[in-house]
Amino acid sequence: MRRALPWIVGGALVLGAGAVTAVTPDDDAVVSPILKTAPAGEAVESRTLIATVTEASVADEVAVADSEWSAEGDWLVVTIAASAATTEQGAAIQLATLTVGDRVFQSSERPPASLTATPLRVGIDTVGTLAFELPRDAVTGPAELRMTTSYFTAELDDMVAVPSDLDDLPRAPSIDLVDPELVAR
């Protein structure tokens, strides 16, 4: 038994080390954002942002009212009511992404009317749109809209996430984008 004891203890230590390795999160999971998720139509609140997706449509063209700007393509246009959660200091949607499968698309900076970088207020919704220019093969299947007040993907912070199915969204030939506006709750 004396000869077997070191082997038994060694085997137990190897199994214990394997178990610890299996349950230890990888580096990405340690610093990845905490997703605060709600379906479209429901408000979702993160540490710095409160947002509700009120409408989403796919369009063949987007245009900006009172402007000469327009663009054809496959566009996902999302209307959002957003406000600051606790403070107006730095409160704005700085990064909005759409995840479709394993592909990530950032909201377009092309339209001059966008909710991106619009200052948000506490207790007063700012209603505006985000437009995503997508390749034709990405306008189908499940997708997730993610928004944060950080310029970069939130690390060790929370992020608003709204899942949807692009196949269920209405399609319009053209959608007019309007400047963000304040709306009392």
Report what the structure shows.
This protein has 185 residues and is mainly beta. The protein has a single domain (32-184), classed as Sandwich (Immunoglobulin-like). Helix content is 14%, strand content 44%. It is built from two helices and twelve strands, in the order ααββββββββββββ. The protein has helices at residues 4-23, 27-31, and strands at residues 34-37, 44-45, 49-64, 70-84, 95-100, 103-106, 124-134, 142-148, 158-165, 171-172, 175-177, 181-184. Strands 2, 3, 4, 7, 10, 11 and 12 form a seven-stranded mixed sheet that branches. The longest helix is centred in the first third of the chain and has 20 residues, at 4-23. The radius of gyration is 22 Å and the shape is elongated. It starts with a helix and ends with a strand. The mean pLDDT is 91.
Say what the CATH topology is: Immunoglobulin-like
Strand content: 35-45%
Number of structural units classed as domains: 1
The Cα radius of gyration reads: 22 Å
Low-confidence stretches: none
Which of globular, elongated, flat, extended, rod-shaped describes the shape?
elongated
The main sheet comes to: 7 strands, mixed
State the helix count. Answer: 2
String of helices and strands: HHEEEEEEEEEEEE
> What is the CATH class designation?
Mainly Beta
**Fraction in helix:** 10-25%
Overall pLDDT metric = 91
Note the topology.
Blueprint: H1 4-23, H2 27-31, E1 34-37, E2 44-45, E3 49-64, E4 70-84, E5 95-100, E6 103-106, E7 124-134, E8 142-148, E9 158-165, E10 171-172, E11 175-177, E12 181-184
Parallel strand pairs: 1-9, 3-10, 3-11
Antiparallel strand pairs: 2-3, 3-4, 4-7, 5-6, 5-8, 7-12, 8-9
